[in-house]
Every structure is written in C-alpha cells, then in structure tokens.
Amino acid sequence: MPNHFHLLVTPGATTTLEKAVQLIKGGSSHEIHAQRGNKIEIWQTGFHDWTIRDGEDYRSKVRYIHMNPVQARLVERPEDWAFGSANGKFLMDRVPEKFKA
User: Fold this and answer.
1) If you write DSSP's letter for every residue of 7-42 in order, what string do you get?
2) Which DSSP helix (H) or strand (E) runs through 93?
3) CA dist 7 to 36, 42, 52, 85, 88, Å?
4) Nearest by Cα to 51 from 8, 22, 86
5) Residue 87 neighbours by CB under 8 Å, 6+ apart
6) pLDDT for residue 34
7) Number of helices (H), then strands (E), in the chain
C-alpha cells in the first residue's frame, strides 16, 4: 500500500507487542533515512492493535490483508501485489498452533 501496511505479529515470550512495533519502526526509519539521506517523518505516532481470538479470526485478518491492495485497485489479484505475503515470495512465520484449523 502506498501509505500504510498491515502486519500480523506474534510477540515472543520476552518481547511485548509495543517493543516489537518500536523495533520495526525504528529499524525501518533508520534504514530509509540512511538510503535517502534525509530525516523525513516516516511513521505516525502509535499503532492500531487487535487481539486475534481464534482460527477463523486469524484467517479473516489474513484475507483482509491479502485483499487490501485489490480493494484499493492497485492490483487485480492478491498474488499480483509485489509487497504482500499472498505473492509467495516471502518466507512467512508459521501460523501459531492455536490458530490452525
């Protein structure tokens, strides 16, 4: 997406969700600033979080994420979005056991 992204994150036993988001934002900002040679504002303050309740909720969120560039009319099929997990080009973490069908 040109102006946002969606991410399913399962924090580890020693990392909170807030810390994981801080690391993602900080690391990506550092890299973008280094590549572009400027210090433009990259991220908005805060983030929106949802707790995944069960397997169907997990699959629903995955479908929403995959369909987001289709709904925005950026591609015709989720697999066509070069930056998304539906295209099969990225190594993804396993689905948490508690959300498997």
Assistant:
1) ------TT--HHHHHHHHHHHHHHHHHHHHTS----
2) none
3) 24, 17, 12, 10, 16
4) 8
5) 78, 79, 80, 81
6) 94
7) 2, 0
What six digits make up the tokens of 76?
């015709």
> pLDDT value at position 77?
97
pLDDT value of position 97: 87
Q: Exposed/middle/buried for 81, CB within 10 Å: 0-12, 13-18, 19+?
A: buried
Global pTM value: 0.81
Q: Which residues of the chain have pLDDT under 50?
A: none
Per-residue pLDDT, 66: 96
Instruction: Give me the pLDDT at residue 5, please.
Output: 87
Cα dihedral 59, 65, 68, 74 sign:
negative
Amino acid occupying residue 56: E
Q: What six digits make up the tokens of 38? A: 């400027």
Joined together, the tokens standing for residue 42 give: 């990259």
pLDDT, residue 28, reads 93
